[in-house]
Amino acid sequence: MCHRMRPMRRLLLVLGVVVLTAILVVGLRQAGDRSGDVAEEPPFDLRAARAELRGSPPPLAALHEQSGALLEGGVPAFRKRLRDLRGHPVVINKWASWCDPCRAEFPALQRVATDRGREVAFLGLNSGDSLQPARRFLASFPTPYPSYVDPDEDIARALEAPANYPVTVFLDARGEPAFIHQGAYRSSADLAADIDRYLGGDGT
Predict the structure, then answer these.
(1) pLDDT tens, 102-116?
(2) Which of 14, 15, 123, 160 is 20 to 30 A from 113 (CA-CA)?
(3) How is the chain split into domains, by residue range?
(4) Domain 46-199: CATH architecture, name and number where available
């Protein structure tokens, strides 16, 4: 009787170890996924966003009319745009089509630019990139604001933005630097919190 039970016990022990190992692997994989991912945002509708932004002050409305556009003109054109936006705080996001963290944070930018776009100006800075990949990127991730083409990072250097990607530069209503965030925003709530902290909750 005892000899017959030993193989059965060994089999049950092996099965128990296999099951526990599988549970541990799945748990660790799920924990790793949660720790590395940017929070998932709901699908973005550019047409609905532009409708929500109607009635914005003229300098901000001009941005919304150029939703998803890639604008040229380099540093002079960008500086002129910033002069036109004087009186409104500005959030400038440096991105590139080849940058995976940029792709991960774009839904947060889409959402917050819609929620706060009546009081805060948003601009993209497509740096270190080529036009065709950038256009394809924006076709997948449309924004309710334009981006300036900056292949050699001239505009980025003028802003004193760090060389890594992505980078988000905050300018106050006077056009003065207020904060630079390096790396991807994990959620729209995190981005909105920095706007409140560094630019003022009422956009002043």
Answers:
(1) 999 999 999 999 999
(2) 160
(3) 1-36, 46-199
(4) 3-Layer(aba) Sandwich (3.40)
